[in-house]
Design a protein that fits this description.
Layout: H1 21-31, H2 39-43, E1 49-52, E2 67-78, E3 89-95, E4 98-104, H3 111-115, E5 121-131, E6 134-138, E7 142-144, E8 153-156, H4 165-177, H5 188-194, H6 199-207, H7 220-243, H8 257-265, H9 272-285, E9 292-297, H10 303-316, E10 320-324, H11 328-344, E11 349-352, H12 358-369, E12 375-378, E13 392-398, H13 405-412, E14 415-424, H14 430-437, E15 441-445, E16 455-461, H15 465-477, E17 481-485, H16 503-514, E18 518-521, H17 527-538, E19 544-547, E20 560-565, H18 573-580, E21 590-596, H19 602-613, H20 617-633, H21 649-669, H22 675-687, H23 694-699
The structure holds adenosine-5'-diphosphate and magnesium ion.
Length: 700
């Protein structure tokens, strides 16, 4: 139960005067909620900028183009002439140094007269402009009769179309006034070390800034809120993890007989890091604490076989495993690699995606429930409600960054204390790992399987398309397999990107030149159709595959050695790295051509440079974070941490580790959250909606 202390904050925004159904709808959209937002949602919606109204010059000294607050006397009104309603309503005002015109377009009758009565003194705040040599303020933001009513600095919030800044500010101010006295949940130690103000002060100062810097994310007020949010997240993860222990003596890995058979059947030897990862996983599977392990390795480093060995370990004790992949192509690819190896060892595997329907699907589900399937590979289809396992012990989630926390939990909730193995081809920065999973063990596949050739990567301007085409023609002549990647399928997919090459168009033009050796796959094709084309490509029936990013994850055609990426400047670093990982997988040398359109922005230039210089995914991930951090400075929008509203990885990276440490200390000192601080921490969990962990405490 939520502490009653917090109730005022969880009241609906519609309980505030002036917030009706229309605002409700807009606020839902703005705050990303399916239901009516609560006051707490308003309070955690932080400003992005401020307007400084503190400059109070005389009219003579007011600089054009700046925000000023003038103290004026109203001299004269000039309403629009009766026949010209489009003309503005002008108000002439002055101080002892000069005149200013206050201009209102389409003013409601009576509005201006009431706002600026003749002969009275008013404080008028807005951006001053010169018009025909006369100072003018068009639609002043503020008109007040007493300076004490003016807030010197106004917060500016991210908005949504139709929502006025004024009404959002008023709603937030009202929410602030309902803030109850909250207990302190941060330890005195951390408060001191980080110079955090109390939460009430933090909220007040970001929403009603006193200094221009008060709203900056790296300042104490915002940082305090970010720390709260991170601590709530870390504590919830720690509580969940602490409760998910296996009963003593339960082991999820067997004697190794299946694993040995699989290893014997492999056409290659495992690399040392594959062996190391498999051993670490087997060890985890036998611990009384649930496994939470991230297996990171560049594309092509051989994660699938490690995942298969994990599943085999589980099958050895008669339990089940699931492998969830983000796309249908990838799921099928997995089953293709896995099935022959697994079957030779007597493991029963099956696939379940959106494509398995009707009787086929019913049979798979029945076998799964009866324990007749050892490893089920699939897509999101795995987390549908009617998919039940006999005894799910291991969930492997491939390409984790494609899945939300919710999907991962949905899969693991299909068994008891399910062990989790996450596969990622883009090394996830430590800070992100912490926010997603709390403490998580990490295995890395550092070396590539032997015999791989380096990839020669070049950036080529679009103006040289002809040469690139010629090169592709020569490659096709000599029997090579070529990917041609285009950013979007249809022009309508994203507004303002009409100039991006359309995969279909490119396919047509390439087909004109190279005939039926060209194929096309994109995300909007049916699964079976995609498979057919991919199959033709893998079987050398076609030599040139035009594709959108559907090939990004996991697709394995080792014979493909050339990749052209069109509009490469549009892709993110991680994505370019993933794409390029589709080549260089066989024993032949590979080439990647990054086709770019000029002019190149600074960010794009930097990205293309990194991708040309290295194929080390770990380095690329680091550079990516660095660039994105800088991107923020350059004004590129930052997407933030998934599931977090306030904390930002590039600003609060330090705080993430501190919050983790604090959560671990709490788990050590007071794992049941008893006593005064415990109560305060429960408040924190509710406030940031991480209370899903609270019932677990009670059960202990
Ligand atoms: P990823 O880590 O990108 O998922 P995969 O598991 O798809 O990589 O493996 C890529 C390719 O490398 C597959 O064809 C697989 O059979 C092969 N492979 C995996 N491990 C080894 C190894 N130790 N030696 C040689 N080839 C390997
Ligand atoms: Mg893979």
């Amino acid at each position: 139960m939520r502490p009653s202390l917090l109730n005022p904050l969880f009241a609906a925004v519609t309980s505030l005067p002036g917030v009706g159904p229309k605002q409700d709808k807009l606020l839902r959209y703005l705050l990303g909620r399916d239901e009516t937002p609560r006051l707490v949602d308003l309070l955690l919606h932080l400003p992005s900028q401020v307007i400084d109204r503190r400059a109070r010059p005389k009219i003579r000294d007011a600089a054009p183009g700046t925000m000023v607050t003038l103290e004026v006397t109203i001299d004269r009104h000039r309403p629009p002439p009766p026949r010209n309603a489009r003309a503005p309503y002008l108000v002439y005002a002055s101080d002892d140094t000069g005149d200013v015109v206050l201009t209102f377009f389409r003013a409601k009758p009576g509005y201006v007269e009431k706002l600026l009565p003749m002969g009275e003194k008013r404080y008028v705040s807005g951006t001053l402009q010169m018009y025909d040599g006369i100072p003018q303020i068009v639609h002043p933001d503020r008109v007040l009769d007493a300076i004490s009513k003016l807030s010197g600095i106004d917060p500016v919030y991210p908005l949504t179309e139709g929502l006025a800044i004024g009404s959002l500010r008023r709603a937030i101010a009202q929410a602030l006034s309902k803030l109850p006295a909250l207990p302190e949940w941060i330890s005195p130690d951390v408060l001191r070390r980080c110079h955090f103000p109390p939460i009430a002060e933090a909220l007040n100062r970001v929403h009603q800034p006193v200094e221009l810097t008060d709203i900056l994310p790296d300042q104490p007020f915002w940082s305090r809120l970010a720390f709260d949010e991170l601590l709530a997240g870390q504590l919830a993860l720690a509580l969940i993890r602490a409760r998910l222990r296996r009963p003593a003596g339960v082991r999820n890995a067997g004697d190794g007989h299946l694993r040995n058979e699989i290893i014997d059947a492999l056409p290659y030897a495992l690399t040392p890091s594959q062996r190391g990862a498999a051993a670490a996983i087997a060890d985890d599977l036998n611990q009384p604490v649930r496994m939470l392990r991230l297996l990171q390795g560049d594309v092509g480093s051989g994660k699938t076989v490690v995942a298969l060995l994990a599943a085999a370990a589980v099958a050895e004790v008669g339990k089940q495993a699931a492998l969830m992949a983000p796309t249908e192509i990838l799921a099928r690819q997995h089953i293709k690699t896995i099935a022959p190896l697994a079957e030779r060892a007597g493991m029963r595997v099956a696939i379940l995606t959106g494509r398995e329907k009707g009787k086929e699907r019913r049979e798979i589900i029945a076998q799964l429930a009866a324990g007749e399937i050892d490893l089920l590979v699939g897509t999101h289809a795995l987390i549908q409600d009617d998919v039940t396992f006999h005894d799910l012990a291991l969930a492997v989630v491939d390409e984790q960054h494609r899945f939300g926390v919710r999907e991962r939990l949905a899969l693991t909730s299909k068994g008891e204390a399910v062990d989790v193995l996450v596969l990622s081809a883009t090394p996830i920065p430590r800070t992100l790992v912490l926010t997603y999973f709390g403490d998580m063990d990490i295995s890395e596949l550092r070396e590539k399987p032997t015999g791989r050739q380096p990839i020669d990567t070049r950036a080529v301007a679009m103006t040289r398309l002809g040469e690139v085409m010629d090169g592709v023609g020569r490659a096709l002549q000599s029997g090579k397999l070529v990917y041609w990647i285009c950013p979007l399928v249809e022009e309508s997919e994203a507004e303002g990107t009409e100039h991006l090459t359309n995969a279909t168009k490119r396919f047509e033009s390439l087909q004109k030149r190279f005939g039926d050796r060209v194929g096309l796959v994109h995300g909007q094709m049916k699964g079976t159709e995609k498979d057919r084309v991919m199959g033709q490509f893998a079987g050398h029936e076609i030599g040139l595959l035009v594709a959108t990013t559907v090939v990004e994850v996991g697709v394995d055609v080792p014979a493909a050695t050339i990749m052209v990426i069109e509009n490469a400047e549009r892709f993110g670093l991680a994505q370019l790295h993933q794409l390029r990982g589709r080549i260089g997988r066989g024993s032949e040398a590979s080439t990647c051509i990054l086709l770019y359109s000029e002019p190149l922005g600074e960010m794009s230039k930097a990205r293309l440079k990194v991708i040309r210089e290295t194929t080390d995914g770990f380095r690329i991930a680091e550079e990516d974070l660095k660039l994105r951090g800088e991107g923020d400075v350059l004004g590129v929008r930052q997407s933030g941490l998934p599931g977090y509203r306030i904390a930002r990885p590039e600003v609060h990276g330090q705080l993430i580790t501190q919050a983790r440490d604090e959560a671990l200390r709490i788990m050590k000192d007071d794992p049941k959250l008893k006593g005064e601080r415990g109560e305060a921490l429960r408040c924190l969990l509710y406030l940031y909606e991480r209370d899903e962990a609270i019932p677990l405490i009670g059960a202990g």
